[in-house]
Every structure is written in C-alpha cells, then in structure tokens.
Amino acid sequence: MTMSQLRRAFSPRRNRAALRRLVRGVGVDRRGVAAVEFAMILPALLAIYFGVVEVAQGVMADRKVTQLNRALADLTAQAATLGTTDVTNIFDAALSVMTPYAPARARMMIASVVIDAGGVARVCWSDQRNSTALSRGAAVTLPVDLRVPNSSLIMARASYDFEPVIGYVITGTIRIGDTPIYMRPRAGRTGGTGNVEQVEKTGTAMCPGF
User: Which of 3, 58, 127, 140 has its CA 20 to 30 A from that of 81?
Assistant: First the structure.
C-alpha cells in the first residue's frame, strides 16, 4: 500500500464519515437487542420467581403447622382418659393435616397443665412424637388470663422443619411453628388434691399432687 493510500485510509474526514454511517446503522438495526436485554435481567427474574415460590411454600407450611397444633389440642381436650394407644391415635390423626408435607419433619408435643390453688401452673403429664416431652411437675408460664386457680389446660406445641424444594433464594432448614396453644378440657375427670377437672392419663396420678 502506497503512502497516499495510507493517508486516504486514515483520513479524519473519511473516518468521521464511516463512524457516522456506523452509528446510524447501529441506531437503526435493533436485531439482538431484546435477547441482550433479556440475558441481563434473567438472573433477577429467576430470583424473584423462585423467591415467590419458596415463600409461598413456607406460608403454606406455616398454615399447616397451625392446623396441626390446633388438631392436637382439640383432640386431646375431648378425652376424659387417655391411654398409650389413644395418644398414638391422636398424633396419627392430627398429623394427617400436614399432607402433602413430609410427616417425618413434624414435631409434636401435648401436655396436661394443672393450675393449683395458688395459681401456679405445672405439668401433670406429657407425650411427644419426634420432639421432647415436658417433665412432670415442671413449671409452665401461662398467659395471665389462663391462670385460673384449680383448673387445667391442654397444651399442644407443634413445629415443622421446612426445607425449600428449590433452594435458590431460601436455603437450609427453617423451624416453623413451636408456639404453644391451649384448650380447656371438654369432658375431663375430676381428681387430684384440689379436685381439678382434667384429662387423665392412664397410669399417671391426677394433679395437683405432683
């Protein structure tokens, strides 16, 4: 290439004209713009979508745990006397409300809490599945309105180890629930040193008289 050809090739005037044509072409040609824009926002869209799915699953699991808790307390409070088989049936029946969530991840505990003449609440008996039972005689802190002397309550506490299926936004295992619910016995028996109406557990002395 001769010197004159080089000068023409790198002429500012020719280059400015070429740049103007290139800019006009880019401004007019929209091919591929949508694909580039979609690729840029795709991660954010995926995060929002999977986040909504996982939060919705968590909310549904929380509602199921609330129903499980209520079923445990309600079924136990309807009994006058409970044996080992009765307790097993209560756990099995209550657990059915967790469908379609994995039942093995549910934790359940029920207890009979008796309030003595002084307003002190203590555990008379307790049973559990995949959880921890309360010790007989253990003190229980109740809401003020429920601390009625010479009365009893059924306390139920359920929780669920929730693990997102996708795990894109929310990861790990989250404990849902674990808040106690209380119900008065509906057909309890009267017994114990204070003649308190309560749900009796077969093989366990009635309370007070821990």
Answer: 140
